[in-house]
Design goal:
The chain is mainly alpha-helical and about 325 residues long. The chain has 2 domains: about 15-160, CBS-domain (Roll); about 170-330, SLC41 divalent cation transporters, integral membrane domain (Tetracycline Repressor, domain 2, Orthogonal Bundle). Helix content is about 65%, strand content about 10%. It has helices spanning about 30-40, 65-70, 75-80, 95-105, 125-130, 140-160, 160-190, 190-195, 195-200, 205-225, 230-265, 270-300, 305-330, and strands at about 25, 50, 60, 85-90, 105-110, 115-120. The chain has a 3-stranded mixed sheet with strand order 1-2-3. Strand 1, helix 1 (about 30-40) and strand 2 (about 50) form a beta-alpha-beta unit. Helix 5 packs across helix 6, helix 7 (about 160-190) runs parallel beside helix 13 and helix 10 packs parallel to helix 12. The termini are far apart.
């Protein structure tokens, strides 16, 4: 299906979905699957093959390269990617376009409440309207599609303040809740702060370092989650890498800030508290930056949208607990 004229971002995405797509049996062999494709055809355009179970529910996506190179007796379940990003049946064109910009895939299945595939929305539906290019230019301009679509979405978002508010406000509540918890923690350690002003002086630096490190870890993890199959082996490898990086970052930043405190205030205990707590809190910040997007990905929430507020709030809370507890234990 092609769009003539401007895109109606508020229309149901299903109105622009293709219906000529093959669905593959996840329990079938590669040989049987290829026979089915030859017999039934693949429709006008196929970008990805989708696998379904005995109830016709979506269970995976089959890369064409794997399908063509696997042994004939290989079960489809062994070569499919079980995690499939799908559009719900009630999604609008705007939401479909946001999926294209966010995940950079060329097509998405549209599924009902039972995860049954009821259509396929691909980039060709929007290509001409967004890029204003003809058929011959499509291959050359496909790489520009996502960038151009992003500009269209920005214009639509600017025109819908209430929609933007509903989309973003719930996650800002996480930041409000995290800030409230941090304020309560500071109140609990008011006496400790009063005994050593240098602890209060470096509070903003501690929070800033933790937020920076957790945001870096979160960004790296969110990027990796778009292109890898998430498993315990992947998570253990990522955890080992992140803990090693965290230790190096923590020791370097903690030692540097500790030297600054000692040189400025000649306060050995204060330097030890601030430097040591920075080292420990940066380790926690790295692990939070890894864990939160991974958890959100596992429960099928969008890590790119939700992980930021949650990660930063948790990083701040853990940093303050470590910072104030260390100060209380050493300076009392």
């Amino acid at each position: 299906m092609k769009i003539s004229g401007a895109i109606d971002f508020n229309a149901p995405a299903l109105d622009y979905a293709r219906q000529d797509f093959p669905l593959l049996e996840a329990d079938a062999s590669v040989e049987k699957t290829l026979e089915t494709i030859r017999r039934e055809g693949v429709g006008e355009r196929v970008i990805y093959f989708y696998a379904v179970d005995e109830r016709n529910c979506l269970v995976g996506v089959v890369p064409t390269r794997r399908l063509l190179t696997a042994a004939p007796d290989t079960p489809l379940r062994r070569i499919m990617v079980p995690r499939v990003i799908a559009l719900p049946a009630e999604a609008t064109v705007l939401e479909a376009c946001e999926f294209f910009v966010l995940y950079k895939f060329l097509a998405f299945p549209v599924v009902d409440a039972e995860r049954r595939v009821i259509g396929i929305v691909d980039t060709d539906v929007f290509m001409e309207s967004v890029l204003e290019s003809d058929e011959g230019e499509r291959e050359d301009t496909r790489g520009d599609f996502f960038e151009a679509l992003g500009f269209h979405l920005a214009q639509v978002r600017d025109a819908s303040p209430w929609r933007v508010f509903r989309y973003r406000f719930p996650w800002l509540l996480v930041t409000v809740a995290g800030g409230t918890i941090c304020a309560l923690l500071a109140g609990l350690f008011e006496a400790t702060l009063a005994r050593s002003l240098v602890i209060a002086f470096f509070l903003i630096m501690v929070l800033g370092l933790n937020e920076s490190v957790s945001a870096q870890s979160m960004s790296v993890t969110a990027q990796a989650l778009r292109s890898v199959h998430v498993s315990w082996d992947w998570f253990k490898t990522a955890f080992r890498r992140e803990i090693s990086t965290a230790l190096l970052l923590g020791l370097a930043c903690g030692a540097l800030v500790g030297v600054i405190v000692w040189s400025w205030r000649a306060d050995v205990r204060g330097a030890f508290v601030i430097g040591g707590s920075i080292a420990l809190s940066l380790v926690s910040a790295c692990l939070i930056g890894l864990g939160v997007p991974s958890l959100l990905h596992a429960v099928k929430l969008d890590p790119k949208i939700a992980a930021g507020p949650v990660t930063l709030a948790l990083a701040d809370i853990f940093a303050l607990v470590i910072y104030f507890t260390s100060a209380w234990l050493v300076l009392r």
